[in-house]
Amino acid sequence: MELLLRCASNHNGQPHDFVTDKVPSQKTPVHCPLCGNTQLIPLSKIYLLVKDPNGPIHGREGRYYCAGDHQKKTFDGILEGCTTEVLAVTNPACKRTKEYKDLMAKEEMRRFYQSGGLVMPSSVTDNDDSTPGPEPSPPTIPPAPAPSDTPEG
Predict the structure, then answer these.
(1) Mean pLDDT in residue range 46-65
(2) Which of 43, 83, 107, 147 pairs as cysteine with 4 (C-beta 3.0–4.6 A)?
(3) DSSP letters for 18-43
(4) Model pTM?
């Protein structure tokens, strides 16, 4: 059985999510593959549902397919679930898909414009990689306009 775990450390401002088939216990702790931390939080796998008139999953607003597994038709309900809300997705397979990345980019732009451009969009990255992402660059502030040479009158 695969478990989705999140490392409790905060490397580069992002937690580490990873999948393992080992069950953590005091006798056999599981270590984060990136930083070695043993303080882990179990996560439910939340799959991304994408609207599709021919999808195998019947939902309230039509038919869907699972972005990370197009053949998946049922979800456990305790260890896994599904959503159309891109920010709630935790399943690493779904996060690697084009559908997820496209929806995440749209969500980040929506949040950027909603904030009046005050919140810089973050990069779209997967938290399940064993390598850290790039350091976020600080926001740039445009220079103030030069004062006018002509007196206003």
Answers:
(1) 89
(2) 43
(3) EEESSPP-SSS----TTT----EEEE
(4) 0.61
